[in-house]
Known about the structure:
Mean pLDDT: 83
Helix content: 40-55%
Strand order of the largest sheet: 1-2
Radius of gyration: 20 Å
Strand content: under 5%
Order of helices and strands: HEHHEH
Amino acid sequence: xxxxxxxxxxxxxxxxxxxxxxxxxxxxxxxxxxxxxxxxxxxxxxxxxxxxxxxxxxxxxxxxxxxxxxxxxxxxxxxxxxxxxxxxxxxxx
Length: 93
């Protein structure tokens, strides 16, 4: 059996906690739905931007999707539309 110095033990503990934290963040991240639609909140979190940015993108041509029901305010964006808008090639090999 061997023993670690206090500094090594603390460093190892910190590294393990960072690994666990990274796993939990990726594990709890909302997944894109089967239809490829995302809410503004999901996009804000995924791309680290504000709602005002989405509004500017809409004015610049990004399409929004809404259910065809009166009294419905829910807005969605298609993930593929955002990738195209940002100029990212969508390679599905």
